[in-house]
Write a structure and sequence with these properties.
Elements (H helix, E strand, L loop, with lengths): L1 E6 L23 E6 L4 E6 L5 E5 L3 E3 L3 E8 L3 E3 L5 E4 L12 E2 L15 E2 L1 E4 L5 E4 L2 E3 L1 E8 L4 E5 L3 E2 L4 E8 L3 E3 L5 E4 L9 E4 L5 E6 L5 E9 L4 E6 L5 E3 L7 E3 L11 E6 L5 E6 L2 E4 L4 E5 L6 E11 L2 E12 L2
Parallel strand pairs: 3-12, 14-22, 23-26, 24-31, 25-31
Antiparallel strand pairs: 1-2, 3-5, 4-6, 6-11, 7-13, 8-12, 9-10, 14-16, 15-17, 17-21, 18-22, 19-22, 20-21, 26-29, 27-28, 27-30, 30-31
Amino acid sequence: MRVTPLETDGKTVSVSGEGNLRVFTMRSSSVIVAAEFEPVTYSISVESMLNGGITASRERATIGEVVALSIKAAPGYVLSGSSLTVTRDNSSTVAIINSGLCGCGLICMCGEECDCERFDCYFYMPASNVTINAEFVKLYNITIQAAGGEHGNIFVSHESAVEGAPIELKFTPNEGYRVKAENFSIKGTNNGQPVTSNLTTEQYYNQTRTFSMPAFDITVIIEFEEIPPGTISIYFEGFFDEEMNLNQYGTTIRRNWTDSEGRGDSIKVTISEDFDRYYWYLDDYLRSETENEITVDGYRLQLGVYTITAVAVKDGIPYSKIVTFTVVDM
């Protein structure tokens, strides 16, 4: 602010003081006091950051002015969630608007063909100095190794992700093919550490697996294999005492049918998790207690309804699941 008292004859009166207070000695005649006001500017500080940085469009701004931010992460890193903050002197935060801006006037309608600098987000300057801070976190990679990949499609929700991010894998085999359970794994690329996933098997052997991204690169190994004619394949994961619904596969196998190579209908049940011991029962009769899977051929059975019970033991604790199917004639 600049204050200039003038005598009526136009002579300047001497003024002292600073800030909002000014002092002068009154003359023996009337004086005219004129003042010119200028906007107050506030500083914009950016904290030092690891693995990335933030650039502000201004170093100082007045209240209400647009301050745009450009976010640059180092290779292999990404801005962490809501870690980007703009903080006033009183420690309260300023709202950030997540919308891109054009450098020619910051807010403009110049279109995507404009060659000027682009910014990632912006905020309106408050009546306070502000400090900008953010955190950048490491991205971990997901590699897919598929055998027989021409026999199905693989979808992964992210090719890289931060620790804890939800990941979805979808496997869609071609007609007549399935995922070979014993050849599927999710493991650390360099450390071999297994990653636990939740499995949902959808109609026609389509699979969806979900898991949280670990703090290391992972490799997904998958193989598509041909389904023998008349075979029903069931994958047991996430053991609980419950009955498996076979409606999505068909609930019957044929007793007196074979293909041109003499192969008949069968049902194959696989436990794709690592347990200490396995027990398989057809109805109430123990059929096996060594392997993690069992195959029951239709031609060996009479007509009727049957159950396969899988009992898996881990650290002395048994877990079980049951599937029910029907044997029919052609």
